[in-house]
Amino acid sequence: MDDQRQTTALTVRRASSAEDWRDATTLVREHVAWMRQWTDFDPVDVQPVLAIEMDGLERVYDRADAAVFVARRRGAAVGVVVVCMHADRSAEVKRMFVRPSARGPGVADQLVKDAVAAAERWGCRTVWLETVGGSMDAAISVYHRHGFVVTAPRDGGIGVDGALVMERPIDVVSPCP
User: Fold this and answer.
1) Domains of the chain (ranges plus CATH)?
2) Which of 14, 45, 68, 117 has the highest Cβ tally under 10 A?
3) For residues 123 and 99, what is the distance between their CA atoms, to the nearest angstrom?
4) What is the spatial distance between Cα 3 and Cα 119, in angstroms, rounded to a whole number?
5) What is the mean pLDDT of the segment spanning 129-156?
6) Counting Cβ atoms within 10 Å, is residue 168 exposed (0-12), middle (13-18) or buried (19+)?
């Protein structure tokens, strides 16, 4: 199935059930709390749509041109990523978060693979994201492994110190196994 991948004890599935949406929303809330602790800005101040997302991701992303993927290890939700298509036929990866207790064994790699695969199915030409150097260096390493490179800022970016835009063309095959 395109929207579900399973590896040893790790399952990544596109959110579709009430449980998936609830778990994905909880993970985004944890991501925001983590960002507040480890950065010098409040992500809700920088991206006000986060306040709506934290009330329920399905209100924003339950549509044909967006997907929310939830990673589960032994049934417990441990990671989330959102991907959405833009009018310019690019796809944006956002809200990627893996619980600290689940970091290291490839959860983020699988989430990125599934987000890029969704963009490919939609016929997007590129996939891009915004992140912040320093506190997000581990995530930046994951993105680099999957062919993302730092590129020029986009209009309407998050506009905080250390912000980076990373992008990769869809036709590049990821070097990760």
Assistant:
1) 4-169 (3.40.630.30)
2) 68
3) 31
4) 12
5) 89
6) buried
